[in-house]
Predict the 3D structure of the following.
Amino acid sequence: MRPKNLLGNLLLLACLFCGTAERAFAQSKATWISGATLHLGDGKVISSGLISFQNGKIGYIGTGAEIRIDRNAVDWIEATGLHLYPGALALQTVVGLNEIDAARPTRDYQEVGELNPHVRSLVAFNTDSKIIPTIRQNGILFVQAIPQGGLMPGTSSVFHLDGWNWEDAVIQADGALHLNFPELSGGNEQTTRALENIRKLERFFDEAALYCARPEGSFPVNLRFEAMRDVLSGKRKVFVRASYARTIRAALQFFHARQIKPVLCGATDAMMVVEEVKAKAAGVVVDRPQSLPMRAHENLNAALCRAVALHNQGVLTAISLDGSWEQRNLLFNAGNLRSCGITSELAYTFAALNPAKLLGLDSLIGQLKTGASASFFLSEGDPTEMKEAHLLRAWIMGKEITLDNVQQQLYQRYEKKYGLNPRP
């Protein structure tokens, strides 16, 4: 066979195999899971419940008392004694954009320049990252991959963690613009620089508004300003990082003047200006909830309790962690919110339903309800409790995924070698 024909046949076979993998995504018949405790994600629980799904969507959820099912016509999974939870969503992460922190070629989350609304994490997302399987094992089934650096790093997208490529994995493309609002803290010199950067943002937004108001084609295309169209029209969400009370207030006034309700990120002093936050912000993302307090007089769990206090004030609040591989601890951090006086069910919403609401995706992910995505997992215990968390099976968009990963393989290898706590 001539080399040219051989190459063509190999490419054809590759395409056929890829097509087969995609077709396996659809179920041949409905799947029913019976007997598990269903944690709906909104704080409600159904003991010994019944849930069905087909074509990637949940078809039924309840006790099953009112229906009859021919078990021979469906895939039946008996899960008595287990717990079923909706998959968690990691906000503000560089999963898929970063592989090895110390290796610059594997870091693809930052571009040069201060104002980059046109930079998209979407096309840089690496579905083959070795980090992804390690966080899926702990119930993280979705991520918001964000760019970083500068005043305006770019736009983020939301991905499920079982894609062949970014086109296959994305569930919300270019959903949010990210902005690091200049911090108005410190000495006069730092405040002066911050005010200069705020004026730079004001000029950019004003120029973008003038550009977007003009008929298309009336002047040369400006990619930065083009990326602002959906922001200025309210179609794209804005996530703004601001910590100190003075900075939060300035950021809220900045966006209120432009009829935009931003999601505040960090927001260390949010409770100091909580009434303004309630009136002018779409919600708050409390990052690094186990970090040390910023001030010496604060309690060690100040960040955790800030998230709960904001929730109690009626602010839509979620939590997030920095980095990529660190996301495997997201649900454990959510579990620590119980130390501030809330239940495990409510704590879980800070890592699943509330992040989905902030992104406008709560009809699809973050909770168990009819018509939502069949993206959930079965666990032996509470996934927010480190001693109990042991995921057995998981599904993303109706497709069962493997929970195996390199770290698990190493654990099993040395567990067998040294005979430590053998697990059947």
